[in-house]
Write a structure and sequence with these properties.
The complex is a heterodimer of chains A (327) and B (336). Chain A is mainly α. Chain A contains 14 helices and 2 strands. Chain B has a two-stranded antiparallel sheet. A two-stranded antiparallel sheet of chain B has the order 2-3. Classes of the chains: A mainly alpha (327), B mainly alpha (336). Chain B: The complex is composed of two ATP-binding proteins (LsrA), two transmembrane proteins (LsrC and LsrD) and a solute-binding protein (LsrB).
C-alpha cells in the first residue's frame, strides 16, 4: 500500500506534466511536435543528470550545495586540457572530467564521513573553494569556443537515432541510477540511512560510508555533466552554472524527494527536473518575458512542497518491496 | 558504536576539544587578530583610519542579517531567502521613488516589505509545517523573481540626498552610520538571545522542539517571530545597501544568503540548531570583513578570498574534531 502511494506520487507529477504540456499545446500548437519535445528534453538533460546525484545525497539525509561548482571546475579542467593538448582524444577528456568530479565528490564525502562536519557546511565551503579553484586555474580568463577543438565541442551535439548524444547520456544515467536505487545494497542503504540513521547502524549499515558513496556518485555525475555543459555551450569560465545547485535541489524537491531524507525515487527526481525544464522552455513560447521565469519557478517549488507535504503525512518508506509482498 | 559509525556534530559547548580551546569565541578572536596583523604587514595602506572604516562596509550589512539568521539557525531552521528579500525590498523602494516617496516613506517601505516577506516565509513554515530549507529556496526564487518582473534589466536610481545617510553617512569622524547600526544591533540581539526568556526559548526549540512544546513553549510562534526578524533585518540591510549603492538592480546582493549563513556558522552557530552565541557571530563578521579587505588591498581578486573563507569555514569547524582525535591518539600511545 505504501509502495502504491509512492507510485501514485510519481504518477501525479507525470499527470501534472502532461496537463502542463497539453495546456501549452492548446494555446500554441506545435509545442508537442516531436522535434520540440526532443529539444526540451535535451535542454533539461544536464539538470536531470545532476538531480539524480543530488537525489542520492538528499535521500541519505545530506545536501550537496557544491554540485554546480563541481560541474564548473570539472568542465573547466576538461576544457583546459583540450586547449593544452588538442590531440588528446575526447574520451580521455571526458574521463578526466568524470575523474575530477569524482575526486571533488570524494572530498565532500570524506569531510562529512571522517570529520563529522554537517553536509550543508561542508558543501557550502567546498562550493566556494571549487569555484575559486577555477579562477586559479584559468586566471579569470574565459576558455572560448575558438580555443576548443571541433571534436571536443561536437560530442554532445552529435545525434544518434535522431537524439543528441547529450540526451542519450542522460538516459543512460537515469537507467544506471534507477538500478542503483532499486536493486543494489547501496541504494537501500541510502533509504535506510536517510529514513533513520540510528536504526541503520543497528542493521549493520555504516552511515558515514553511505554518505561518502552518495557524494561520490553525485560528484561523478557532476563531473560527467561538467564536460557536457562546457562542450555544449563551448565556453568555460568561473561563473558557469552559477546558482544551478538550487535548481538541482528544487528539481529533487518537486520530484518528491523528502528533504529530511529517506523518501523519494530516482524517477521522481527526473520528473521534477523535466517539470522545471518544460516551464523554462515554455515561457518564451507563450510570450512571457524570461524575467518571469524565476518568480514562476519559485512559486512552482513552493506549491510542489505544499502538495508533497500533504501526501507524506505518513513518514518512512518500505525498503524491501519484495519482502513486503511476501507478507 | 564507534566514532566513525555514528555521525554527529561536535557539540562545541561540551566537547573535550572545545574545552581545550577554551571557547569558540577565543579561537575566533585569535584568528581575527592574526588576520589583522597579517593585513598590516601585507599592505602599508591597511592601518589607516579611513581605510579601516571603509573595511567595515564589507561586513556590516551582511552581519545585520547574520544576527537574525543566527537565531533562526539556533532554533533549528534556516532562511535562504534573505538576499532575495533585499532585492525585493530594494525594488519596492525604487518603485515608490518613482511616485515621489521621501526618505521616511522609503525606510517604511523597505522595512515593511522585509516584514511581509518574513511573514510569508513564517506562515508557510510554521503554519503548514514545511521544511524551512525548501520553503526558503522557493521564496528565494520567488522574491528575486518578482524583482526581475518589476525591473527587467533596468535599474532605479535618483534616491533623495537624505536617504544617502544610511549607507554613506558618518556619525562621528570615521565612524559610519552603518558601523553604529552594526554595534547597536549586535548588542540588542546579544541581549535578546542571551538575557531574555525568548532567547532561552530559541535554544530550547533548537535543542528539542518536542520537549520545548511539552514545557509550554509555543514552538510555532517562536519560529514565526524569528522569520519575521530575518525579514525585517533583510529589509534594514536593503535600506543600507540601496543607500550605499544609490541604485536598485534586481541582481542586488546576489549570493548573499550563503555568505550570511557562512558568517553565522563560522561564528559558532551549530547548523543543526541548539547552540551558538552572538559574540561569535560578531567576531566571524569582523574576520570575514578583514579577509575581504586584506585581500582587496593586496589586489587579490574576490574569488580567491572566497576560497580562503571556504577553507576557514571547514578548517575551523573541523578543528575541535581533529583535536579530540589527536588527544585520544596521544593518550593511547602513552598507555601503550
Amino acid at each position: 500500500m505504501m509502495a502504491g502511494l509512492f507510485k501514485h506520487r510519481e504518477a501525479l507529477l507525470l499527470v501534472a506534466i502532461v496537463l502542463l504540456v497539453g495546456a501549452i499545446e492548446l494555446r500554441f500548437p506545435g509545442f508537442i511536435a516531436p522535434r520540440n519535445l526532443v529539444s526540451i528534453y535535451n535542454d533539461t538533460a544536464i539538470l536531470i543528470i545532476l538531480a539524480l546525484g543530488q537525489a542520492a545525497v538528499i535521500l541519505s539525509r545530506g545536501i550537496d550545495l557544491s554540485i554546480a561548482a563541481n560541474l564548473a571546475l570539472s568542465g573547466t579542467i576538461a576544457a583546459l586540457l583540450n586547449v593544452a593538448f588538442p590531440d588528446l582524444p575526447v574520451i580521455l577528456l571526458l574521463a578526466a572530467s568524470v575523474a575530477s568530479g569524482t575526486l571533488l565528490g570524494a572530498i565532500n564525502g570524506l569531510l562529512v564521513w571522517r570529520l563529522s562536519i554537517p553536509p550543508i557546511v561542508v558543501t557550502l565551503g567546498t562550493m566556494t573553494i571549487y569555484r575559486g579553484t577555477i579562477f586559479l586555474l584559468t586566471d579569470g580568463a574565459w576558455v572560448n569556443a575558438h580555443e576548443m577543438t571541433a571534436a571536443f565541442k561536437a560530442v554532445p551535439r552529435a545525434t544518434f537515432l535522431d537524439l543528441p548524444v547529450l540526451s542519450w547520456v542522460s538516459l543512460a544515467a537515469i537507467a544506471a541510477m534507477v538500478v542503483v536505487f532499486v536493486y543494489t545494497r547501496l541504494g537501500r542503504a541510502f533509504y535506510a540511512v536517510g529514513g533513520n540513521p540510528h536504526a541503520a547502524v543497528y542493521t549493520g549499515i555504516s552511515v558515514g560510508r553511505t554518505h561518502f558513496f552518495a557524494y561520490l556518485i553525485a560528484g561523478s555525475l557532476a563531473g560527467l555533466a561538467g564536460y557536457l555543459w562546457v562542450a555544449r555551450y563551448a565556453v568555460a569560465y568561473v561563473d558557469i552554472a552559477s546558482g544551478f545547485e538550487l535548481d538541482v535541489v528544487a528539481a529533487c524537491v518537486i520530484g518528491g524527494i523528502s528533504i529530511a531524507g529517506g523518501a523519494g525515487t530516482a524517477i521522481g527526481a527526473v520528473l521534477g527536473a523535466l517539470f522545471l525544464g518544460i516551464i523554462k522552455n515554455a515561457l518564451p513560447v507563450i510570450n512571457i518575458s524570461p524575467f518571469w521565469q524565476m518568480a514562476i519557478s519559485g512559486a512552482v517549488i513552493i506549491i510542489a512542497v505544499i502538495v508533497n507535504a500533504r501526501g507524506s503525512r505518513v513518514k518512512g518508506r518500505v525498503i524491501l518491496k519484495k519482502a513486503e509482498h511476501a507478507l | 558504536m564507534s566514532m566513525t559509525e555514528t555521525r554527529h556534530v561536535p557539540d562545541r559547548l561540551h566537547s573535550r576539544g572545545h574545552r581545550a580551546l577554551r571557547s569558540w569565541e577565543s579561537l575566533l578572536l585569535v584568528v581575527a587578530v592574526a588576520i589583522f596583523i597579517a593585513n598590516s604587514f601585507a599592505s602599508p595602506y591597511f592601518l589607516d583610519a579611513w581605510n579601516l572604516s571603509d573595511a567595515t562596509f564589507n561586513f556590516t550589512e551582511k552581519a545585520l542579517i547574520a544576527f537574525a539568521m543566527a537565531l533562526v539557525i539556533i532554533s533549528g531552521e534556516i532562511d535562504l531567502s534573505v538576499a532575495s528579500i533585499i532585492a525585493l525590498a530594494s525594488t519596492a523602494m525604487g518603485y515608490a521613488l518613482q511616485y515621489g516617496a521621501g526618505t521616511p516613506e522609503l525606510v517604511a517601505i523597505g522595512l515593511g516589505v522585509g516584514l511581509l516577506c518574513g511573514a510569508f516565509n513564517g506562515l508557510l513554515i510554521t503554519g503548514l509545517g514545511l521544511p524551512s530549507i525548501v520553503v526558503t529556496i522557493g521564496t528565494m526564487s520567488l522574491f528575486r523573481g518578482l524583482s526581475y518582473v518589476v525591473l527587467g534589466d533596468k535599474a532605479f536610481t535618483g534616491y533623495p540626498p537624505g536617504f544617502a545617510y544610511f549607507g554613506q553617512g558618518y556619525v562621528f569622524w570615521v565612524i559610519s552610520f552603518e558601523l553604529v547600526l552594526f554595534v547597536v544591533t549586535a548588542i540588542l540581539f546579544g541581549i535578546l538571545l542571551h538575557l531574555t526568556s525568548f532567547g532561552r526559548m530559541v535554544y530550547a526549540v533548537g535543542n528539542n522542539a518536542t520537549a520545548a512544546r511539552f514545557s509550554g513553549i509555543r514552538v510555532g510562534r517562536v519560529k514565526f517571530l524569528l522569520f519575521l526578524m530575518t525579514g525585517v533585518m533583510s529589509g534594514l540591510a536593503a535600506i543600507c545597501l540601496t543607500s550605499r549603492l544609490g541604485s536598485t538592480r534586481p541582481s542586488i546582493a546576489f549570493g548573499w544568503e550563503l555568505e550570511v549563513v557562512t558568517m553565522a556558522v563560522l561564528g559558532g552557530i551549530n547548523i543543526l540548531g541548539g547552540s551558538g552565541t552572538i559574540p561569535g557571530v560578531v567576531l566571524a563578521a569582523i574576520i570575514m570583513g578583514l579577509v575581504t579587505f586584506g585581500f582587496g588591498l593586496m589586489n587579490v581578486p574576490g574569488i580567491v578570498m572566497s576560497i580562503f573563507i571556504g577553507l576557514l569555514l571547514i578548517g575551523v569547524i573541523a578543528l575541535p574534531v581533529l583535536y579530540t582525535r589527536l588527544a585520544r591518539r596521544m593518550k593511547k600511545s602513552e598507555t601503550a
